[in-house]
Amino acid sequence: MSEPAKEQGSKTETVARTLLVAFFVSLVCSSLVASAAILLQPRQLANAILDARRNILEVAGLFEPDRDVNQLYESIEPRIVDLATGAYVEDIDPESFDPVEAAKDAELGVEVPADIDLARVRRRAKRALVYLVRKDDEVSKIILPISGYGLWSTMYGFVALEADGNTIADITFYAHGETPGVGDFIAKPAWRALWRDKRVFDESGTPKIEVVKGRVSPGDPMADYRVDGVSGATLTGNGVTKLMQYWLGDHGYGPYLRNIQRGGGT
Ligand SMILES: Cc1cc2nc3c(=O)[nH]c(=O)nc-3n(C[C@H](O)[C@H](O)[C@H](O)COP(=O)(O)O)c2cc1C
Known about the structure:
There is one protein chain. This protein has helices spanning 3-59, 69-73, 99-104, 189-193, 234-247, 254-261, and strands spanning 76-82, 88-89, 109-111, 123-125, 127-135, 138-149, 154-162, 168-175, 210-211, 226-227. With 266 residues, it is α+β, with helices and mostly antiparallel strands. The protein folds into 2 domains: 1-74; 76-261, no CATH class. A 6-stranded antiparallel sheet has the order 2-1-5-6-7-8. The protein is elongated. The model has no long low-confidence stretch (mean pLDDT 94). The structure holds flavin mononucleotide (FMN). Residues 151-152, 178-179, 182-183, 213, 231-236 line the site of flavin mononucleotide.
């Protein structure tokens, strides 16, 4: 064989070998990644549940850093509420209910009409998971999951109401994509503290709670329903106002909270 032909043959062989090695390396790597994903799935799920429980305990004022989250969570009573009637649903185990999956389901979910979709959720489950805290057998707090769009992202949180179904005990946003140092004030303890003892519903039962632009003025007759906004981040604050007004309104937890206010929420 001539020298150029020999050289050509060995080049082809080198390319084929390189491709073969690359193929096997990628096969091994993808198998490792796939196996890790499958093996870690149960642990990820357990961590997600633990994180949700920690957030619920925190907003309920029951979180203790030195104690086991699952043990503390035993004092929380998850219940399912039919959002249209506001009544508890007894025939579904709250532990097996997934509101995210239910929202996607044609039967279990419902589209939120665009003209009332203040939180920009588009669809929601017909039923919702709520969490009760009891003290001496009486409901002392009601924890409601909330979500809605800010400036850049869907913000997920919980609001804790006192037993009257109107006074805010605490609020938390545990997941959002608002800008660090700008819109992330929603997750800061100092801002959270401003919500304590604010009221949701006015005398007529309309949700009036809102985040204002700038500070709530001391003489404001609506001060009980208003929370300071953050200058330069008004749009995230507006998102919080809208999601609160949607979720606490007639299409959200409104019927349930009216039941609570009438003494029927235990
Ligand atoms: C890079 C960048 C990121 C921003 N992130 C946020 C944000 O997360 N939340 C927010 O409300 N505004 C954010 N803003 C500002 C908004 O565009 C808007 O100017 C502001 O919300 C208006 O509030 P103000 O009327 O109090 O100034 C951001 C602006 C820039 C340039």
